[in-house]
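Could someone model zinc ion with this protein?
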Amino acid sequence: MGQGMSCVESHENGLFSAVKNGELQAVEAMADANPSLLTLKTAHQNLSAMHVAAANGQIEVLSMLLDRTEDPDIFNRHKQTPLMLAAMFGKISCVERLIQAGANILLFDTVKGRTCLHYAAYYGHSDCLKSILAAANSTPVAHSWGFSRFVNIRDKSGATPLHLAARQNQSDCVHILLSRGALVCASTGGYSDIGSTPLHLAARGGSLDCVRELLSWGADRLQRDSSGRIPYMIALKHKQDACAALLNPLAPELLTWPFPLKFIRELNPEAKTLLENALLEANKNREKAILNTSSFSVSPIAVSEGNDEAEASNTDLCCICFELACTVEVENCGHQMCAQCILALCCHSKPNASTNSAKLPVCPFCRSSITQLLVVKNKSDSETESHFSPRKLGRTREASNLCEGSRSFNNLSPFSSFSRLGRSSGKVSAERDEELDKP
Ligand SMILES: [Zn+2]
Ligand SMILES: [Zn+2]
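Reply:
Sure, complex below.
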């Protein structure tokens, strides 16, 4: 036994550095010579070879290791699994491979009682977040826990993934979580100030993008934490002036996603993404007005002012606003308008809670009731269609920097202005990097 251990120890460093560097053949040869090496763990952190491979994104090595082991959920010293580390470091291929190998998404570490979903949200890896949420829909978790319970899963201090994403200025993750049913007004237990909502945490983190997202999803500016403070007071306390301007209860409200409407709940993914983006766009314009009238003047939004880029020649202009291209079609009557106009229609006709008589929006052209909304397909340009795929649309903001001036975005004016705004919020994303290190 003693002899075996010393033999193993001499291999240890070689193994882990080979795994870390992705030396597939070397690791394979070591595993062939001594299969027990794969259950080895590092001295201090108790990391296995799988942890090291997952954290470093060494997908080939990880794949080979998974083929040779029964259990993808090996623990390190803090009961973190390889899946948690892959989600923490944003190694999407490893996240996908581990899930495919049957890794459990519903395990909690012993540091803060967090799951892989918490890690993806905290570190802002939206691709990993989506992948884990997709798994929650299709794996036994859905049956044992239910999807909506999983989205709102709490760590030891009562923080949901949405709380963490809002606190860390991860607006893409905030958006994904909200659109998958995260509770916008959930209060934390002991995380940050007791009783904080995601809006309190976004106010503290100073992310306009997160504040805007949360308000668009119906976050309540008047909800108080356990000390009786509304998010506005938190923003003032932490000198987040721009957020404070939006959170001021006296400022005009942003448009809220009209989720009570049946046809909004039943939108196909493509139309949903289109309208969600239009809502954000509309709110950015409102926000611009709010920020410009408030006393301070530093505003990344104000910089983004500019003329709408030229309309595409092969799309029809919206007959309501005469500004944007028709992107949405009302089913049955076939009337078309831009996403912003249909949203304005829906947001102004919210069901009245007191009378409970929902006044449903109707087609502004023929007054027929709206049963379904579809995305207008651009027939003359098959290229455009590929840009409409839900996957691409979901990434609009992530991709915005890459797509500066790209012709494909000029075809769709809501998106062309979107990419401009994305660029201008560069300041915000630079600030968020500094925050990342602080737990
Ligand atoms: Zn319009
Ligand atoms: Zn109509």
